[in-house]
Amino acid sequence: MNPPKQISVLLAEDHAIVRQGLSALLNADGHFKMVGEARNGREAVDLALAHKPDVILMDIAMPVLNGLEATKQILTANPAAKVVILSAHSDDAYIERMNEAGVVGFLEKQTSAEILTKAIREVANGKTFFSPSIAKRMGNSQGKARDRDGLIKANGQKLTTRESEVLQLVAEGSANKQVAAALGISIKTVEKHRQNLMDKLNIHDTASLTRYAIAAGVIESAVLLTII
């Protein structure tokens, strides 16, 4: 009798010690095969499209591209992808946005190894898996349609994927030239996206843009301390 097929897993986590620990844990289990480790959301998108893993473990707060935007891009390119969030951030706003983006699981980082491996197996078999505490707080969000178009403003306007990418990089302190290099676009195009997102948000300076990015869960509050 042939042994069961290993479940291929991609891990996206910017903290090296956490990433290495999770990878070692899953490799030691014997039922999983690590096909990639991403240090940021951009790497996660590239590795997900290249390897098409059975399950993607995704952190939310990552540099270059956060987990929310990375998830949207992965699911837009491959709707069959199965993304499970593993994050220290589990407030209602994060849960709602990730659920709307189309994730099939959400676990808190203090989750036990037993729960983590169970979640991966469940998701790989076509089910969903949310930590009990998170499931209780999801409320009516289960019935909402998926939305991968970008952050939603109170007035109904949405930031495009590119505008959201520019928002994160600018809020992290990147100059227009650095944003252009990171995204592979011209400085003029960066300036246009930057102006468009500031017009939509009715924001007129970088500090306020950074505060919005923190409130929207695009970056962590620690970033703000390094800027202002």
Order of strands across the widest beta sheet? 2-1-3-4-5-6
**What does the radius of gyration come to?**
18 Å
Parts with pLDDT < 50 across at least 5 consecutive residues: 140-156, 222-228
**Helix and strand composition category:** alpha/beta
SSE succession: EHEHEHEHEHEHHHHHH
Instruction: Give the helix proportion (percent range).
Output: 40-55%
Strand content: 5-15%
What is the averaged pLDDT score?
Answer: 82
First-residue to last-residue Cα separation = 62 Å
Largest sheet: 6 strands, parallel
Strand element count = 6
Q: Treating each run of at least 4 consecutive H or I residues as one helix, how many helices?
A: 11
Overall outline: globular
Overall description:
With 228 residues, the protein is of the alpha/beta class. 50% of the residues lie in helices and 12% in strands. The protein contains eleven helices and six strands. It has a six-stranded parallel beta sheet, with helices on both faces. Strand 1, helix 1 and strand 2 form a beta-alpha-beta unit. Helix 2 packs parallel to helix 3, helix 7 packs across helix 9 and helix 7 crosses helix 10. It is globular and about 60 Å long. The C terminus is likely disordered.
Task: List strands and helices in order, with pairings.
Layout: E1 7-12, H1 16-29, E2 32-38, H2 41-51, E3 55-58, H3 67-77, E4 83-87, H4 92-101, E5 105-108, H5 113-124, E6 129-130, H6 132-137, H7 161-171, H8 176-183, H9 187-201, H10 206-215, H11 221-225
Parallel strand pairs: 1-2, 1-3, 3-4, 4-5, 5-6
